[in-house]
Structure formats: structure tokens, C-alpha cells
Amino acid sequence: MVFKRGYKEYLYPLLYICISILAFFLKEFLLLKTIPFLISSFITAIMFISYINKTSIILFFAKKFSKKEFSKKEEEYIHKSTLFWFFTSLINVIIHLIIFFDTNMDYWIYYSSIGWYFVFIFAGVLQFLHRKFIFLKDSND
Predict the structure, then answer these.
(1) φ and ψ at 6, to 5 degrees?
(2) What is the pTM of this model?
(3) How does pLDDT run across 39-58, given as a tens digit for each residue?
(4) For the chain, where are the alpha helices, taking DSSP H only?
């Protein structure tokens, strides 16, 4: 499996808190400003690695939380959709990077707090529509 229960589930939030405290005491906002970019980059890397290794992280969580069994065709579809979510996450990283270098703090505040949700919501709607009107339609034929 890709992930095992243990220290990892506590490591990342703890790391975020430690970097935030360090940024506060150092009075270095630039360090705090990099955190959303770093987290997005990490998630993007995990998506890409899981796609390359053919151990889709999306499929892992889908199997973990779903009560039904997936057919081979559904598993293949979910694995291919990992590439779609990798590119969605990569777009998010690029936007974070552009906003990081921008001098307007308002852009960073809005995008880092709620703006990135819209990227993923839009991608989720596209994925839903594709699955419903293309994948499931082809599966029924």
C-alpha cells in the first residue's frame, strides 16, 4: 500500500505548525508565505509518483472509503484520472508560485485561503461530468 498508519499522519500538521511558529519568531513572513506552495508541491509530487508507480493514490483512497468493489475497467479509469488530478495540482502549484512572487499580498491571501478551492472544484465538476457522460456511457454500451 502507498500509506501506512503511524507517525506520518501527525508529521505533516506538526511540520506546518513548527514552520509557522518559526516564521512568527523570526518575523519572516516570506517563510510562512511559502507553506501553501510547498504543500501543493508535495501533493503534486505524490500524485505523479503514484501514477508512475501504478499505485494510484486516488484508487487507494477510493478502495478504502468505498463500500463497493471496483471493476478492472473502473480501476483503470481511476488510475488514468490520477494523471488528470496531477495536472490539476500542477496548475495549482504554478498559480501558487506566480502569486508567491507577486508583490500584491491580497492575491496571496485570497488564493492561499479560498482561491485554490475553485481550481479543484472546477476540476471535480469536469471529472464528474466526464465520468457520468463519457465513461459510464461507454461502459453501458
Answers:
(1) 150, -145
(2) 0.75
(3) 899 999 999 999 999 888 88
(4) 8-26, 29-52, 57-65, 72-101, 105-110, 116-130, 136-140
